[in-house]
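Q: I'm writing up a methods section and want to include an example of the input and output format. Could you take the sequence below and give the corresponding predicted structure tokens, formatted cleanly so I can copy it straight into the document?
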Amino acid sequence: MIWAPVQVSIAGELFQPGRVLINEPSDVPMITSISGDSRQITGNYPVRRYLTVAIRAAGGILPTANVTQVKLRRGHQEQTIDLSGVFTGTPIEDIPLIAGDQIIVPRSDRFQPELMRPSQITPPGIKVFVSNLTTPATSNATSAVGNQQEGITFPYGARFSQAVISANCAGGISTTNADRKAILVRVDALTGKTTVVERKVEELLRNSYSNEDNPPLLPRDGVACYDSNITNTRDIFRSISDLLNPLNPLLLLLNFLR
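A: Here is the clean output for your methods example:
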């Protein structure tokens, strides 16, 4: 027996709250790809209609979610469910859902970095935009950043420092590159407010001891790198030299017009 898809509402501390459709027909082939012996399931088992599946379909929980007080409303009844076992390994009550159910994930009183890892109710990975267009890598193509329209993928729980390394902002000649800076740009999905965190690359890599020093990455964050003072000064003099060069095309054009 194949259970039909159902639509449920899910709100609260999630990346994509709203209405979600679970147990879609496209999910069925995922089961049939398993070997014949391990597919022998008897009885009615709605494997894709459980509470954890709905939470995952809504993008997964935020680090500010209170996973011990998840609410399930069905008609006039309400039930509180503790999903902390997803992270600790203790048993949880993963309830099969029916059409019209409403799920509410309340807010915790603190940011919980321990929830920032792949699980049944968190995203397996996130998309982040990175940019490194100057020394030591001259382009995204040559630096293998491959920054596409939807960004590049990092495991959920990755840190600012890991994005900096991935963008090839670190390493190279220490005398000229160790003073590089990196910024983390984050836009709040609810308020639209943009926040910017700036760190010196070497300090970020070597002297980070807290979430404030080295923030965890969130979906659609942006990371950009800036060159060291030595590199900036060198390029300023290089630009002046190019302008004063008698073979400079601009000077040749002015001389020709004269």
